[in-house]
Structures are given as C-alpha cells and as structure tokens.
Amino acid sequence: MEALIGLLVGAPLLGAAVLLCGGRRLDRTGHWLGTALAAASFVIGLILFIDMLGREAEQRAMHQHLFSWIPVADFRADVAFQLDQLSMTFVLLITGVGTLIHLYSVGYMEHDERRRRFFGYLNLFLAAMLLLVLADNYLLLYFGWEGVGLASYLLIGFWQHKTSAATASKKAFLVNRVGDIGLAIAVMLMFTTFGTFTFGPVLESTGAAGEGKLTAIGLMLLLAACGKSAQVPLQSWLGDAMEGPTPVSALIHAATMVTAGIYLVVRSGAIFNASPDAQLVVVTVGAVTLLYGAIVGCAKDDIKKALAGSTMSQIGYMMLAAGLGPIGYAFAIMHLVTHGFFKAGLFLGAGSVMHGMNDDVDMRKYGGLRKYMPVTFVTFGLGYLAIIGFPGLSGFFSKDMIIEAAFAKGGAQGWILGSCALLGAAITAYYMTRVMILTFFGPERWSKEGPDARHPHESPKSMTIPMIVLAVGSVGAGFVFDLNESFVHWLEPVTALEHGHPPMSAMTITAGTVVALLIGVGTAWAQYGRRPVPVQAPRGSLLTRAARRDLLQDDFNHVVLVKPGEYLTRGLVYLDHKVVDGFVNGTAASFGGLSGRMRRVQNGFVRSYAVSMFGGAVLLLAATLLMRAV
Amino acid sequence: MNPVNYLYLAALLFAIGASGVLVRRNAIVLFMSVELMLNACNLALVTFSRMHGNLDGQIVAFFTMVVAAAEVVVGLAIIVSFFRSRHSASVDDASLMKL
Amino acid sequence: MSFPLLTVTAAVPAVGAIATAAVPAARRTAAKWLALAASLLTLVLAAVVLVRFDPGGDRYQLTESHAWISDFGVRYELGVDGIGAVLMALTALLIPFVILAGWHDPDAAEERAASDRRWRPTQGFFALILAVEAMVIISFLATDVFLFYIFFEAMLIPLYFLIGGFGDRAHSQGEEEGSRQRSYAAVKFLLYNLAGGLIMLAAVIGLYAVTADQLGEGTFSLQAIADARAAGELDMATNTERLLFLGFFFAFAIKAPLWPLHTWLPNAMGESTAPVAVLITAVVDKVGTFAMLRFCLGLFPGASEWATPVVIVLALVSIIYGALLAVGQRDIKRLIAYASISHFGFIVLGVFAMTSQGHSGATLYMVNHGISTAVLMLVAGFLISRRGSRLIADYGGVQKVAPVLAGTFLVGGLATLSLPGLAPFVSEFLVLVGTFSRYPAAGVVATVAIVLAALYVLVLYQRTMTGEVKDSVKHMPDLRPRELAVVTPLIALLILLGVFPKPLTEIVNPAVEHTLSDVEKHDPAPDVEAAK
Predict the structure, then answer these.
(1) Which residues cross the membrane (chain B) (predicted)?
(2) Which stretch of DSSP H or E encloses residue A219?
(3) Do B22 and A607 count as a contact with CB atoms less than 8 A apart?
(4) What's residue A79's pLDDT?
C-alpha cells in the first residue's frame, strides 16, 4: 500500500511533463489526458483512504521513503512521504476538487488555443500541492510550497498578453516569496535547534527546546502561512490573482493552495502548543483578516474579487481556529474542507455566469440571471446558503464550531475573538446576500443590443456537472462530518483533541450565530433587494471607497515599499557607477595624470638632458666625497 | 713641476667642455666640447698614471682615444645626414622622438 | 609510471586550440567542428576522471609529480580532490555548449576582416575558448601553488582578446561607441585581474620565503606544506600568515568578484558575446571562489578565521547589493552580471561559514550557478541576436511569438531565483543553513536575497516576454534546432541535479571534510539532540 503514495504525486507530475514537453501533437487530446491523470490520482487516494479506514486509529499513518535528497553531514533531507489522517483529508480534497475542476476547465477553456498548456500547469499544481501535504519533512514541504507558488504564478499569468495578468502573477509570486523567507528561516532554526527538520522528531521533542526558539520558529511558520494563505499583512496578492482563469481561482485561490498555510500551522501544532505567544499572534492575524476580508468583500463590484475577499475572510476563520490550539485544530480543518466545497462551487458558478456574459465581471451589469441559468442559480444558491452558515448546511456546522471554540478560549481574549467571529458571520451574510441579489435577482441590467449586447445562457454539461457535485458537497459535508463528531475523531490521532468550555451554552452561541446571519441578510436585502441598483457605482462612504481599494493596502505597500525601493535601486545604480567604479576609474586617471606630468621632463632638448646628466654626476660625486669624509 | 697643476688644467678643460655642451646649440661645436671633455679626462688619466707610477692610466687613455675616434666617425656621419635632411645643425631641431 | 590522465585531460583542449588556430582561412567551418570535437573529447576524459575518482580514497588522487624549476622548489604537480573534480567536470561540460552557442559569433569579426586574409577570426575565437578551457582545467587540478599561479594569470590573455576582439554587436549607441566600450571593458578586465595577480605574486614569493626559512628548502606543494604543518615543522608568524592570506585573497576576490571589486564584471559581460560572458562568469570566475576554498583556507587557516567577520560582511553586501543593482538595470546582460555578483556573494558566504553544509553548498553552488547562468545567459544571447538590442525596453510579448524561447528563458530565470526542484535551490539552501548554524544573523540577512532574486528575474521576464507583442519582435523566430540542442541538455541537468543531487554530494562531501579539518572546525551541534 505504501508504494501507492508516490503514485499520488507521480500521476499528475507525469501529466505535467507530458503536456508541457509534448508539443502541438497533444493539442487535441491533452486536456483529457490531464483530467484522466487527475482522476487517477483521486482513485489512488480513495484506495488508500479505504485501506486506512480498515485499520486501527493509531495504526493509520503510512510512510514511504523514496530516496535521499540532500545529504550533507548531519543535514539530511529525504524525499519521503507521510500519509496520516490530516494528509489524507487534504489528498481527497485536492484530488477530488481538482478532478472536478479539470473537468470544468475542459468546457471553460474550450476556445483557448493554449488549452494543452493550461492543463499541464493544472497537473503541475496538483503534483506540487500533493507533495506539500504528503512530505514528511519541512524541506520537502518547502519544495511543494514553492511548487504551488510557481503553478499559481503560471496560472494567474496564463493570459500573459494582458499586462494586468502578468503584473498580478508577478505580485503573487513576490508576496509569497516574502512568506517563504519565513519558512526558510523556520527550517534553518529547526535544524540548529533539533538537528533535523523531519516532522516526527521535531514535533516529538518540542518539550526539550527553549520557548524562545519555539516562539521564533512559530512566528516564522506563521509568516510563511500568511504569505500563502493571504493573511494580513501579506494579503495583497489574492485580489489581483483573480486575473487568472476562473477554474484557477476556484481550485488554487479558494479551495486548496491558499489553505496550505492552515495545513502548515495545524501540522506544526506541537510547536504552537508550546508557545502561547506565537499562538496569540496566530489568533490575532486570523481575527484581523476575517474582518478585513469581509469588509473588502462588501465593497467589490467585481464578482470574483468579492469572492476573493470572502476567501480571505474564511481563511481568517480557519487561522483563528488553528491559533486556538487543540480545541480548534480539527475545526479549522473541517471548515477548510467545507469551504473547499462551497467556495469552489461559488467560483465555478461565477465562472459559469461570466461564461454566459462575455466575461463581464461587473455585478452591477448582471441581475435577474436566475431565469437564464437555472442550474448555475441553484448550485450557486446552495453554495451561498452554505457559506453564510444556514442551519443544516455545511458552513453552519464548521463555522459554528469555530465561534464556539473562540469563546471557549476564555477570559477577555475569548470574548474579543468570539465577538469578532460573530461580527464576521454577520458581514459574511451581508456581502454574500449582496452578491446573490445583484447577480440573480432584481431587474436585468445588462445591455440587450448594440456592441455590448449580452446573451446569457446556461453553460455546457462539462461545466455544470462539477458544479452540481460541489453543491451536493456543500450541502451534505457538514452534516456528515458532524455525525457523532466523526471528523473530529478521525483527525484526533494527529491533532489531539480537547473540548473547549465556552462561557455560555452551545445553544446560546448557535442562536447568536443565527441572529447575526439574519441581521446580515436583512441589511443586504434592505439595501439591494428593495431599492434599484445603479449600474454606475455610487461614490459611497469613506469606508466603502477605502474597501474598494482593498482598504488602501496597495497604496500602503506602494508608499512604504515600492517607492523607497525604486529610489534605493536607482540610487545604488548611480552610486555603483559614480562612487565604486568612479574610485577605480579615478585611480586609473590619477596614474595617467601622473605619468603625463612626468613625461614633460623628456622635452627633447639635448642641453636639458646634459644638465640632468651633469647634475647626477655632481650628486654622485658629492655623495661619494661625503661618505669618505664621514 | 707639481703634477697637481696638470690636474687643475684637466679640471679647467673639463669645465670649459661641459659648459660648452650645456650652452651651445650647434652640433659641431657641441661635438668639439665633448672632445674637449674627453681630452681633459685623458690628461687627468695620464697625470694619475705618472703620480701612481704605473701604466694603467696611460692604457686607459689609449682606449679613450680609440673610442673618441670611433665616436667622431659615427657622430659626424649622423650630423652630416641630419644636416642634409633638415638644413640645420642645431640640436634643438632634433626632437622628433619626443612624444 | 601510470597513465597521466590529468595532464592529458588538460592537454586535449590545449592541443585542440593550436590545431584550430592552424586551420587555413578558407576552412572556417572545419575549424568550428574541430573545436567542438576537442571540447567533446575533453568532456569524455573529464567523465573518465570522475569515474576513476574514488570519493572514499585519498584526498588528492590520480596525482602526477615532476620536478620543474628545481632551484625554486617549483614542481609540476597535479591531483584531483572532490571539489576540483566536480568543477573540472563543470568546465568540460559547459565548453561544448559555449562553442555550439557561439557558432556564429565570430561572423561579425569575419566581415570586418574580410579584406585581410592573414587574420582568421573564426579560428582565433574557438582556439581562444579552448585555450581558456585548458588553463582553467589546469588551475582546478594544480596542487602546486606556483603552477596554479601561472595558469591563473595566463587565462587573462585569451580572455582579453575574447572580450576585446569579439564583442557584442548589439550596441544601442552604434558601432563606433560599441567598439570603444568593448576595448574599455577588455582593458578594465585585464587591469583589475592583473592588479590582483601581482599582489598574489608577492604573496606567492612570500610563501616561498617562509617555507624556505622554516623547512630548509622552499616548496609550493600543497601536500608538502600540509604535511609540514601536521608535523609541526611549519609554524607561520601570525602577521606573516595574515599578510600572505590577504595577498591571495585579494586576487581571488577580484576574480570571484566580491564587492567592492566587482565593477569589471558588468562591463566585461555586457560587452562580450553571450557565450564568452558564460565563459567568464560560469567557468573562469569559479577559479576565484575555488581557490579561496583550496588555497586561502588550506594554506592559511588561522588567518582565514581572523578575516572571517570582514569577509562575511563583504559577502552579505555583495548578495544584497548585487541583487538590488540587478533590479535597477536596463540592459539584460548587465542584469545577469549583477545577479551573478549576488550569487558569488553566496558562494563566498558558504566558504567562510566553515561548516560542512556551507562548504558543500558553496561547491555545489559553483556548479549549479554555472549551469543556471549558462541557460539564462545563452537564451538571452539568442534573444538579443534576434532583435539586435540589449535593452529590456526594446522587448515585450515575446512569449506570444516564440513560446519555446520564452519558456527556456523562464526556466533559466527560475533556476536563478533558486526555485526548489532546480539545482541552485539545493546549493543555496545548503549555504544558508551552513551560514545560519554558525552566524544566525548573517543567515537571516542572506535570506532576504530570495525575495530580491524573484524581483529581478520576474521583472525581467515580465518586461521582455509578456504583455502586448511589440512591432519589433513580431516576426521573431523561435529557437532553432542548434539553439535547442544547447539549452535542452542544460535544463535537463538543472532538473536532475535539483531533484537528485546525491551523485555530486557524494563526491564533494569527503573533500569538504578535508577542508574543514584544514581549518580545524566542527559543525555546531544542535540545541536538542532530537529523538532519532
């Protein structure tokens, strides 16, 4: 069985290699090859999952050692896999959603002449992401970590002829690299602290290390997680990343890659457990981001950017839960999985809408689309109900658990975190209702004739089937996971489990959540459902305008980083030319000048040469006599 | 007679030759001044030979004469060919090699 | 007497150079093929050396030793250790690609010389490249300081002519200005390296004086000096050792090049053709960093330790400074040159971190940087030859018209920014870990370069390859078969060494143990002895 683990990564990797090197011959069949290999990976995942279920909870982790990667003295990095319950969860999510999105892309990218390459990149992403979650040490994880970054770069910039896409992809890669500094330093710290960076030995011996070191490692891991998962302060790339094709946004920038940060924090739970300071920073980042993303999501008129703000916010929830320690890990992962379903579904729905609307993304030019795209409407609607936490649907279970756990943190911290989470729930309900109303309800605001005429229509089967499957997941996953706390117990051997004790009863909190939901939905209805929506966005309040500009994050980065950086490099180029090189050239010039001056002595007059000769003779004579005299 | 007087004479001749080399421009005169200096040296050598009572100085004086003769041959040839090309015997005109 | 394999390996390109130079003017193509054949034969011999080399055996293997100038104790001594072996292999590997990539480089000089039949640029170009190869290989194999010195200096002569005589025609300010810039670059290169070499010569003579004084008879043999030191017969005075160290180090720091002695590199790389630029940065400059590891640390361990703080700071400045300047460049080739300065900073950092990871990382870095820069620079050269401009601003949207060219350029760029999966990542991470375990602050500062590297690579890629297709590149042809033949094997090697670098580390690791024992250093132990 262990031997199959490598195949999980190998199948999509093979696909990427064949599709990217295969050339034009594969243009007609390449997409099906890519989809088949993604599906193969999913099937292998299922086989391993069934095998795993058949064993005792403690015996479920599997290892596969392939070969030694970088062996130098005590530094030993191996290409070795570890498949435990946590990895298994991710494997199924990645390959499952991944396969659906491959299928969806067959239809979505039908008219793109570079479709073969698109599938090559998607397969590359799957391979890297699987490597990330299957690695048994932090350096191999880093390999996958940068690999998904590369795939994300290639896919965001897939339409490279658009300057905006090229810029967005570069930005995503750069911001992620800032996070990667954190991961690199964390690995180095682990090596100097523990002498290894393999999960098992590191996580088992946290007790023996100093708390300062552990806090440092934790904070560096968090920095990495912030980059990959678009958490404050490294969140700025996610909105721009929506320049990529919509299936990419669904797979990478909603369901899987952006949750890698959560995986990292949960995987490194033992380190965070031993360092309350680091945990405090994690929950703070989570709470800030969940509000930040939600506020940004309220102001965007671009459907994908509104969903991107929502993604940020939902991952904030997961980060918050992961920072709570053993009472939150399982819920963070549970929300991650349910979010994977409903957010991927929402993005695919958005893609379907765009497909029918000539790639227009402005929601103010939508309206009343439910009549034209019934399947999209229903699946999107179910995703909507799931994300706002409508009782009984998947988001309700997972989000409610996180809010409970936040209150259970205890003390003032618990109240603050819990309130943030509740407030976030209300805002989530508000902005998602806004998206829903603007897109599917109300009068039809698109132009019906002229060059900009839109002819909305339902998407082909290859696109709607994945949407239906994901909608089913969004509805049912939470209920299944919550049955006898099955999900929490499944993860227990990896994450350990503690039950939190909130300061009030679970019923009260659930009631509070439902009230928050109703307030959010009601406000949105009052604002967008009852009143006509202007096609041109109104000026809006100060907060709205700031939120439209992503709460000025880019302006901040521009002023604090980009501009000074430009001046610095320009100054250094000048300095290198004038000072460093100038010094050398100056030395050369001064030698030249000196010899020019000495040359003048050679004036070509015999008499002056004779004088110097006589002078020299006299000097020599005088010196000789003087020496005699002494 | 005191042989030192010959040395004084040699020094005087040498000084005259040297100042001739320094101040004159005509190549022929310059040449004559150089000859004067050489002969002053010869006189001094012969005097020293006499003072020390051996023949070393006289032998060297012969060498000097031979070298001077050879020098005159080469030098005059250069001066003549220089005069032909430049129509001048001034040494100041011979500065072609100066950069 | 055993077969002198090392001498033959170095002699093949030397003989090839003479033979190539002797080809008659009319047979230009034959000269090219002859040069390629000689370089391939060298590659085969280098591979034989690698196979014959036993990582677990003696420090120096396949040794040859003959008296040469016995009055001064100079010997013709060759021997190969793990570090020299992989670098020699790198040299032998890259030269065929350099020759193949430079197939048409001398054509410009050929046009200029059309009227004069005595002057044969094509023969000269390839003969000079082979001459450089021979000298570089000898430098990697010499275990006699004087022998090393001679070839270390002699390399300058063919390189001077390669830079000055066969410059890049793509100059924005016209032919005449280009020619002026070219000779400026060649003279600058020569003077810088000559200055370093002269100071090193003084130190070489000083070394002779010290050994002659203490051992009775002077020697330049590394093995003899190491033996004498081990036996306690050689004990340099602290100040003498430091002065000698500085003399050697100065020359190597110019060659490497280390900030602030770096300014010759951007000129030299910018003005020469892409294959010659590869020759300079990927092959010749490696002699500098290699010599730091072998001669500075091996001959003067005490002084090396004394100088470490300053050298580490210089290396860090090089890393950050080179990267920042690369961001600010408008010329593709100068950008790559500054990126190389940043990378050389990493190599020096690894050498002076004095840990196993640092030394192994530095050695691998030399190899990997050679390959990755070759890919990036050669593809950049192909690009430049198509458009006739080195300015980034003259390009845009190339990806659309020449996807294979853009793709290989991206792979070269990703290797330059040390993406995991490609070879440079392995070495860069080893250097970082090696540095961090002894000097955490230095390790953290160096890590910043991973963001800066991404910045200059991606900005370069974005401005040249993406966006609207500019009119000037509209009809740009994609890579030709000859060009693909250059790039594909190198890219395959980048991936192979990125995923499975073990064959290299197995050769390098034992050698690194020796250099560490030279300086009497041990790796720092971890805080916690983790449960195994």
Answers:
(1) 6-23, 28-48, 60-83
(2) helix A211-228
(3) yes
(4) 92
